[in-house]
């Protein structure tokens, strides 16, 4: 029986990055992932890196570390992660006051610049000028989500890490002995380790609950349309200045007991946005639903119609492009800070999940966490771990 230092559950951007950093620190690591073809939130994300959006000393420091990390990451991982800067355009609805919208961003480390309707349409000619009262803009980091995840996984494997594609079983996927977690049972085998890190994104809550561990990490159902490469060119990354998703997430966590039953505690919202990758493909979205059943069935035809109708209003040239509707789970927490560290009262099991902005916070925090559990003190990890107790 092989015993690993760490088993990392989940190979999206969170699990892949953490597995790499643990292996780089010298630990023997097994990475478990159920899908050889990813269907997770990383796969369907925009890939934005909001390193301008720090609001506290902790988040500002992590943003600075992320900028530095991305400058060297492609070379370190020996891979093209398509890291670049592009203009982020935060659209302001026609019935909203642009000055009020701008003021709502004034607390950020680098507030975006307010643009008139004319200036916004010069920056992004595909915008419908009649749908906005203005926009905000700032330089925004961007990578290809799948390419960076695969780059981390390949770097992890070069360091001697191992990966197994196998689904973790329910409800006894984690064996306990006096609350001491030592193994993970999957559809193909049982694997053993000194420590386990749950990086399963939107499935983290259910995975831990099935083992008798209550945890306040939640999930939403996100829906987008993905197009094949097209000749049409979107110059910017477009998203609303008033992002309803965060308000929806907060409202859904006010009565935690609702998450112990199958329900939809709040109505869905749609934040109209779009991004184009270097190959010309686009991701258009996004609908966010709070349904407490991670396996809930969603009417894809109605969702796609809602998405396309809303996109037609803001970016009319994109509304009828050929594309496929996709759905995934997105993890979040009540205060938008991730859950990191050992779960209180349970030995050997850790959580590393609930990142509202994974591409900005995961790389620096994974690096810090790996050093922290190897014995190096870390002021930021200490603060995030304390809030879990």
End-to-end distance:
33 Å
Number of helical elements:
10
CATH class of the largest domain: Alpha Beta
Q: In which range does the helix fraction lie?
A: 25-40%
Helix-strand category:
alpha/beta
- Our count of domains comes out at 2
CATH superfamily of the largest domain: FAD/NAD(P)-binding domain
- Beta strand %: 25-35%
Identify the overall geometry: globular
Q: What is the chains' assembly state?
A: single chain
Poorly predicted ranges: none
H/E order of the elements? EHEEHEHEHEHEEEEHEEHEEHEEEHH
Give me the CATH fold name of the largest domain: FAD/NAD(P)-binding domain
What would CATH call the architecture of the largest domain?
A: 3-Layer(bba) Sandwich
- Give a quick account of the main beta sheet: strands, pairing sense, barrel closure: 8 strands, mixed
Give the averaged pLDDT, no decimals.
Answer: 92
What is the radius of gyration?
A: 21 Å
How many beta-strand runs? 17
Domain FAD dependent oxidoreductase: 5-370
Protein name: FAD-binding oxidoreductase
Keywords: Oxidoreductase
InterPro entries: FAD-dep_OxRdtase, FAD/NAD-bd_sf
